[in-house]
Structure formats: C-alpha cells, structure tokens
Inverse folding.
C-alpha cells in the first residue's frame, strides 16, 4: 500500500499526468497539467525506496508524459490542456531543467530496466542544451548528478554538470551578501546544492566548499529563532522586512534537499539541522505556528500567507511535502 504519504499525489493524478492546481483537496481538472510538476513527481517517486506496484505504474505514467512533452531537438512543452493539447511551444524554461532532473533520477534509480533505458534516452536527447537561466541549469545539473552516480563516465551528464560552476559562480567577497545573485528569488538552495554535487562528483574541493559556504549563509538568512523562515514569493534582499509572505513549500523542500546532500558529502551532522528545520516548517514550527499540510488528505498546503496557510493542496506543494518527508524516513533514520 502507498499509504497517506502519496495518497494526495494519487488523488491529483490520472492516466495522463498530474493536475497542477487544486481547490482545497480536489483537483482542478479544468486547469490541466504542466511538465514542471510531472517532472518533480518523477523525482520523488523514483527516489522512494521499495516503491510499490501502484506507484511504479504512476512513475511510468509520469515518464510517458515527460517523453510526450519532449521535442525532437530536446526542448520541452510545459502546459497541456485538459483535452490534451499543448498550449505552448517547446522551450528551455525551468520545466526543461526539472525534466532533466526527473529523467536523470528515473534513469539512475528506477527498479524497472525499461524505465531506466527510456529515461536515459530522453535525458541524452536534451542534455546538450545550455539555457540562459541559472536555476534552469541547476535543476538540470541535479539530473546529471543522478546519471553520474549510476555511470561516472557518462559524457553528456559530466559535461552538463561541469558547466554549472560558470553559471552560478562562487561566493561574493561581501560577507553580508555572498550570494551570487543580487536578490534571493525561489528554490534558492538548488544553487548551492548544484555546486556541492558538482564539486563532489567532479573532484573539485573548491567548488564543493563554495557551495557549502553559500548554503550555510542561506540557512542562516532563511531562519528566525531557530526555525525556517523562507523568503517570500517576491524574493528578498538585505534590509527588507522579515518575516515576509507568501512563503512557498518549494523553498523548504529545496533547503531540505541541499542540506541532506551536504550531510551525505561531508558526514557533518550539523547539516541535519537544516533538514530538521525544513520538516518542522511543514509541521508548524514556522513564523505563524501553522501546519502547512492536511493531516487527513496527506496534501501540502499551497503556501503560508500573513493570515495563515493557503489551504489549497496543489501539485507543487504536495510534492514539496513528500520530498521533504522522504529525508525524515531515509536520511534521518539512517543516523539513529
């Protein structure tokens, strides 16, 4: 049985893909699907140990969606209407990067050989692109990391991961603002995570340590009184008020992923504090003391507003909840 952990993800899914939006716990089918979310779903399903048959079948559906979204030149469509029509032209936005992340994870971790082969073929078809967005490339770099973990000699994954340092750069010399961008935006921890992964897998201590330094600063900036206080949807810079809203679950999930990787790379238990804070944010240890998930449905709430949680339970927030809790049931359990 898949249990409550994945119950709401199943509720949001059908034989086409994953519905993007929800009204409370109910899928808003009229809004259709987006590759961004399906690719994230491919990540969390394929990194779940001992995936049961029903969720393996769901992972196959998600992979079929990603493959269908891929153009011959390796770009991807993102938005699919409820009547299965693409609403955009293939491109290289964040959805391209997340697609490679999902494909790389499936290629490396699926227990089904056919899924691994198909995912790797799709990954290879797209890995030659170099989009302009730093976050898009960082998401793709995490997919390359997965491929390299299974095949350290994989050429296109190695080339893609090797290029991430030129996109992100190292920390700035300003101790108050070492961040490589002029403002914090969204899913911020993916940038240091990509550097940590690249430095670790490609054998560069300098790149790895740059990522660790940026992540340490980010965790400090995104914490208040020892609980996570993510930056709001509009981003943040020094001197702007905190806490600020709306806070998004994707920020907590990115922090959990990055701190979990930092722990695996360094074996320093101090990094587990960032994982704990991210899990606790969903459980009410946040700026308003509010639960950011529905205990009855297993869905994640869509954000933390000044007046409390946004109780809609869409795909992005539910996947953020699942991915963060995966660390509770795997990484943290292994240290007990």
């Amino acid at each position: 049985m898949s249990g409550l952990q994945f119950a709401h993800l199943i509720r949001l899914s059908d034989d086409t893909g994953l519905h993007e939006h929800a009204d409370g716990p109910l899928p808003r089918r009229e809004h259709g699907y987006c590759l961004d979310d399906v690719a994230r779903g491919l990540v969390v399903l394929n990194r779940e140990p001992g995936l049961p048959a029903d969720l393996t079948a769901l992972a196959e559906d998600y992979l079929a969606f990603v493959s269908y979204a891929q153009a011959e030149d390796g770009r991807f469509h993102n938005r699919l209407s409820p009547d299965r029509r693409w609403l955009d032209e293939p491109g290289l936005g964040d959805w391209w990067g997340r697609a490679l992340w999902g494909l790389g994870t499936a290629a490396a971790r699926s227990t089904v050989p056919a899924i691994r082969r198909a995912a790797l073929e799709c990954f290879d078809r797209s890995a030659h692109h170099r989009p302009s967005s730093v976050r898009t490339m960082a998401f793709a770099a995490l997919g390359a990391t997965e491929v390299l973990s299974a095949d350290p000699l994989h050429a296109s994954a190695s080339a893609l991961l090797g290029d991430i340092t030129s996109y992100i750069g190292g920390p700035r010399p300003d101790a108050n603002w070492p961040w490589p961008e002029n403002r914090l935006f969204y899913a911020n921890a993916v940038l240091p995570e990509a550097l940590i992964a690249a430095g670790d897998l490609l054998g560069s201590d300098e790149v790895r340590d740059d990522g660790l330094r940026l992540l340490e600063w980010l965790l400090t900036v995104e914490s208040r009184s020892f609980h996570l206080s993510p930056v709001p949807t509009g981003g943040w810079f020094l001197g702007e008020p905190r806490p600020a809203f709306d806070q998004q679950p994707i920020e907590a999930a990115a922090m959990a992923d990055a701190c979990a990787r930092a722990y695996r790379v360094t074996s320093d238990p101090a990094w587990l504090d960032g994982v704990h804070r991210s899990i606790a944010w969903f459980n009410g240890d946040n700026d308003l003391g509010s639960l950011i998930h529905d205990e009855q449905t297993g869905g994640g709430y869509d954000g933390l507003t000044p007046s409390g949680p946004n109780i809609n339970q869409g795909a992005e927030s539910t996947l953020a909840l699942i991915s963060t809790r995966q660390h509770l049931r795997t990484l943290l359990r292994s240290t007990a």
Remarks:
- The mean pLDDT is 96.
- Residues 184 and 236 are 5 Å apart (CA to CA).
